[in-house]
Amino acid sequence: MRSFDRIVVVDWSARSAPSPRRESADAIWIGIAGPDGGTECAYMRTRAAAEAALAALFDAALDRGDRVLAGFDFPFAYPAGFAGAVTGADDPLRLWDWLAARVEDGPDNANNRWDVARALNRMFPGVGPFWGCPAGEAGPDLPARGSLRHGHGMAERRRIEARLPRAQPCWKLYTTGSVGSQALLGLPVLSRLRRRYGADLSVAPFEPPDRPLVLAEAFPSLIASTVAALAEPGEVRDRTQVRVLARALWRLEAGRLDAMLREGDREEGWILGHGHEAVLDAAARVP
Questions:
Q1: Which of 28, 34, 160, 286 lies most in the core, judged by the most C-beta atoms within 10 Å?
Q2: Of 193, 201, 189, 218, nearest to 75 (Cα)?
Q3: Contacting residues for 171 by C-beta, under 8 A, at least 6 apart
Q4: Whole-structure pTM value
Q5: Per 3-state DSSP, what percentage of the chain is helix, strand, and coil (rounded to 5)?
Q6: Which domain of life does the UniProt lineage start with (predicted)?
């Protein structure tokens, strides 16, 4: 199996309304590195628009006979035991489908993630594990602060997050640095892409990365200093992140990238490139 013809890196967003018309931070950005050596960047105001754009990109790639690796900057799984408690199976991809059946996310980004988080918390003893929400959404089933949780039985971090102090726990749904809401609203999108593409798509590290379309969890902050160094004047930081990481992954030797995609935990997931930061840094900085 040859390497990838295109590398896509997606910076996701959990906004509850469309992002501003003017390109801004905390929105969805898609970076695409391809055979021409350049990197395109697209700004998406809604998750629905991003899902449609990704499907169009994947459709075109399959029509050409190309391979695409798409990395998304939100957790692909939760600490061990969570998927099993929710779905009855330790397979994180079953949890994706469970969320897809329950998360409502409109074309204007209006969504029911607080209700889904409350429903999940009610499946566990004590209080939690999810936390963080606007004041009007807080209550016994969804505490506003992490310190209010107790007795839910889940680990605070996945194994990969314990290795990366910059990575936030997936239970945190609100305020600075949170990624929990991005996961609740992103995993249903990935579930639908899996159903759409069937045997043409696989998810690393849960499945072998040998299909035409491969999805993986990405974390641009692995190479934060390089991202900062390569920012263009006035560039939105999220745009820089997807552009630089897509470029770095594109420049990796095929065998090394394949090996990276096979690393990690089959239940908790993994962040692509962890442990290979120096290699990614060097690839990103190649003129």
A1: 28
A2: 218
A3: 128, 129, 130, 131, 132, 146, 154, 156, 180
A4: 0.97
A5: 40, 15, 45
A6: Bacteria
Q: Which residues contact 39 (CB under 8 A, 6 or more apart)?
A: 31, 32, 33, 243, 246, 247, 250
Letter string b/e over residues 131-160, b meaning 16 or more CB atoms within 10 A of that residue's CB: bbbeeebbeebbbbeeeebeebebbebbeb
Residue 173, SS3 per DSSP? coil
Which amino acid is residue 64, in one-letter code? R
Please tell me the distance from the alpha carbon of residue 142 to that of residue 131, in angstroms, as a whole number: 6
- The owner of tokens 């990395």 is 71
In this structure, the chain runs to a length of 287
Give the residue ranges of DSSP H helices in 131-179: 159-163
Structure tokens at 156: 């605070």
DSSP character at residue 268:
T
pLDDT in tens, the chain (287 residues): 458 999 999 999 999 999 999 999 999 999 999 988 789 999 999 999 999 999 999 999 999 999 999 999 999 999 999 999 999 999 999 999 999 999 999 999 999 999 999 999 999 999 999 999 999 999 999 999 999 999 999 999 999 999 998 899 999 999 988 999 999 999 999 999 999 999 999 999 999 999 999 999 999 999 999 999 999 999 999 999 999 999 999 999 999 999 999 999 999 999 999 999 999 999 999 98
Task: Tell me the one-letter amino acid at 140.
Answer: P
3-state class (DSSP) for residue 168: coil
Cα–chain-centroid distance for residue 73? 3
Sorted by sequence, the CB contacts under 8 Å of residue 14 that are 6+ apart come out as 113, 181, 182, 184, 185
Peptide bond into 233 cis (omega under 30): no
Nearest to 216 by CA among 255, 271, 254: 271
